[in-house]
Amino acid sequence: MQTLANWDGGPGPWILFFPLIWAAVVIGIVALLRRTVWRRGPWAAGARPSGDSPLAVLGRRFASGEIDEDEYWRRLSVLDEQFGRKGGA
C-alpha cells in the first residue's frame, strides 16, 4: 500500500496546492493595494463636486425635488457669475 509520504511516482497531488497558494498571494496583494494606495490616487475623487460646495448643494436640492428646473438654472447662472465654473464641469 502506497502512502503520500512514500510515493515515488512524481510530485503527487500536493503539486495542486502551489497554484492555489500563488493565487491567494496575488489576490491578497491586489486587495491590499485597492484598500490603501489605489484609493488615494487623483482618479479616486472624480471630477464631480463634493462636500458642501455650492454646486453640490444646488445639485442635491434639485435631485431631491426641493427646487424645480427653472429655479435650478437660475441659481446655477448666479453661481457661474459669482464663482465661475472650473474645468467646464
Task: Report on this structure.
The protein is rod-shaped. It starts with 16 loop residues before the first helix and ends in a 7-residue tail after the last helix. By secondary structure, it is mainly alpha-helical. The longest helix is centred in the first third of the chain and has 19 residues. 54% of the residues lie in helices and 0% in strands. The model has no long low-confidence stretch (mean pLDDT 77). Helix 3 runs antiparallel to helix 4. It is built from 4 helices and no strands. 0% of the residues are buried.
State the gist of this model:
The chain is mainly alpha-helical and 89 residues long.
What's the story with the biggest beta sheet?
Answer: none
Estimate the helix proportion, in percent: 40-55%
Radius of gyration: 29 Å
- Count of helix runs: 4
Structural class: mainly alpha
Shape: rod-shaped
Mean pLDDT, as a whole number?
Answer: 77
Q: How far apart lie the N and C ends?
A: 75 Å
H/E element sequence = HHHH
The unreliable regions are none
Total strand segments: 0
**Hey, roughly how much beta strand do the residues contain?**
under 5%
